[in-house]
Task: structure prediction
Amino acid sequence: MKKVAVYPGSFDPITNGHMDIIQRALKMFDKLIILVAYNPEKKSLFTVEERMNLIREVLNHNKKVRVDCSSGLLVDYVKKEKANVVVRGLRALSDFEYEFQMALMNRRLNKEMETVFLMTGYRWFYTSSKLIKEVAALGGNVKGLVPDLAYQQLQEKYGLNKK
Result:
């Protein structure tokens, strides 16, 4: 039986911190579903389709990875996909508090579902998609904090055709 995990997030855009978690999760699981969350309440820079395509491109269409999207409950998605593990990345104590609450609620809704927390690599400890977007929007250099393709797309979105 294959070990299938789901890595949910907004990925707006995907960062090198996300990439670190993905690469490490791929060593632990036979298949990883990267689930792009769709939340109409949140204002995203990239559309769901743009985020999904970017992730596929950045991962070179890795056969162990599937990219999908959902706007419903994570527990329902995990059950539908016959997965039982959710991967979550942690940066700081504040991440843990929120993620711990979510993991406990998910566990209450689906007793078969486990959450695995992976600490992001120390190089990416301070990065977040939100911070990267804020810096890029003001013309700051975020090269090296996101995959090259994400950097190019950020430049295009903000009209900063720098290399």
Q: What stands out?
A: The chain has six helices and five strands. Residues 4-126 form a domain with the Rossmann fold fold (CATH 3.40.50.620). Helices lie at 16-28, 48-58, 74-80, 93-109, 129-137, 148-157.
